[in-house]
Design goal:
The protein has about 110 residues and is an all-alpha fold. The protein has one domain (about 25-100). Helices cover about 65% and strands about 0% of the residues. The protein is built from 5 helices and no strands. The protein has helices at about 1-20, 25-35, 45-60, 70-80, 85-100. Helix 2 (about 25-35) runs antiparallel to helix 3, helix 3 (about 45-60) crosses helix 5 and helix 4 (about 70-80) runs antiparallel to helix 5 (about 85-100). The chain starts with a helix and ends in an 8-residue tail after the last helix.
Amino acid sequence: MFRALMVLALLALPFAASAQEMPRYDVEAHCEEIASFGGEFSNMTYNGCIQMEQSAYDGLKGQWASLPGNIQRHCDEIASFASPGSYSTLQGCVQMEVSAGQNRGQFSFD
């Protein structure tokens, strides 16, 4: 009985690891950096950034749990490379990865 439980637990590990929660980025800090680029703070740029990040987050949160773990991890690493992270970058990465997975190229000897 104990062995059966251990086997089941080990088989479930890959599935548990792939179902990550949506990453949490400090959007306000990210948008402040963007809005301060060039030395002068722009409220228009800040507000536009917040709206763009909110839209990307809202678009991702419904599909995040169904994405393969490798796409979740890879795109989170890319989106958080330039700290504090960006949902717009995360969304772009996810869209490109999903699209590339659906349109795999094929080699031909012709």
